[in-house]
Amino acid sequence: MRLATLADRAVLLVGDGAVDIATASHGRFGSDPMQLLAEWDEFVAWAGQAELPAATPYRETDLNAPVPRPRQVFAVALNYRPHAAEAGYVAPEIPLLFTKFPSCITGPHAEVELPDGNVDWELEMVAVIGRACHRVPAAEAWEVVAGLTVGQDLSERRLQLTGKPAQFSLGKSYPGFGPTGPALVTPDELADRDDLAIECLLNGESVQGARTSEMIFSVPRLIEFISAVCPLHPGDLIFTGTPSGVGNRRVPQRFLGPDDILVSRIEGLGELRQTFRSDPEALRPASA
């Protein structure tokens, strides 16, 4: 199943078209994707047996974030060994967590305003929680996952690395710095949910490439680690980490500029496409 948000309404993507869920369910389920996630078991049961109407063609640029208002957004640092090495660190022994504030979440085809500073790319697979849970063992963790999607952990490096300790979360949470989509894909749609090819392209040039099986901490291990402390809620997002190839570790460094086109692809999940423009009113935080 591929759950998406089209013109702010929850839809199922079927072939080249979309089916409006509220209409197809005769009002049993509404148009808000967050409410569907809150009723995930009931919704999955309905979708598995429903006789859906013909899908309607749609424009990909009309897709919104599949999970538009997550309650919590977790992110993982240094979860690929080559990325840890390029950043000058040894591979971590436990997951290194930070957060992206939910107001940064946007859709798969957003135009992003560039703040003052050095804006970098970080392609990531994102896990979406589908069931309220707490203290979930890794062996049971896939049972609480509604699906996977593509994400970009866009990062303004000057603010992110300002101060001791650094401003990780704030520098990664400007408006539009959490593109996600194009759809929430349930794991049963994937040949191997633990091993997906991922690639990021900047203006057509491949700048990141890896497989999710190369992550140091898998999705189940991340859920076990996070849920040991934090209760998880339907719609929570976990950005699972980025592979090597980010701009601030290149020689010379390379950052995003106006009119750049960033394409982020994950096998079986689809792709994001971001463009960028300068924000004439952007100000650097005074304390930075």
UniProtKB/TrEMBL annotation:
Residues covered by the Fumarylacetoacetase-like C-terminal domain: 73-276
Keyword vocabulary terms for this entry: Hydrolase, Metal-binding
Annotated InterPro entries: FAH, Fumarylacetoacetase-like_C, Fumarylacetoacetase_C_sf
Pfam families the record matches: FAA_hydrolase (PF01557)
Superkingdom per UniProt: Bacteria
Gene Ontology terms: biological process: small molecule metabolic process
GO molecular function, one term: metal ion binding
Gene3D superfamilies from the UniProt entry: Fumarylacetoacetase-like, C-terminal domain (3.90.850.10)
Family named by the database record: Belongs to the FAH family.
The name this protein goes by in its record: Fumarylacetoacetate hydrolase family protein
Organism: Streptomyces adustus
